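Board notes (copied after class):
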Amino acid sequence: MEISVDISLYPLQAGYEQPILAFIAALEKEESVEVVRNELSTQVHGEYHTIMRLLEQEILSVFDEIPHSVFVLKLVGNNRKGLYGV
């Protein structure tokens, strides 16, 4: 099953840009998913199990380094890549 996930990360600390960029870069290392960067969020498109495993691993990594972080995730039950100009 293909899905799309819209992700926003809010590290509650000064210098928040670098952890966000590092999180996105870690997602982009997974070649079997498509990652689309936007100014306010990042979209990930691909196979459900691959994305969920990837998010579990990378979100835990952020929480280990910056426990005072907030993630906002929106999951869509199909691959929305390319729809509505996204």
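Comment from the instructor: The longest strand covers residues 2-11. The CA atoms of residues 33 and 50 lie 8 Å apart.
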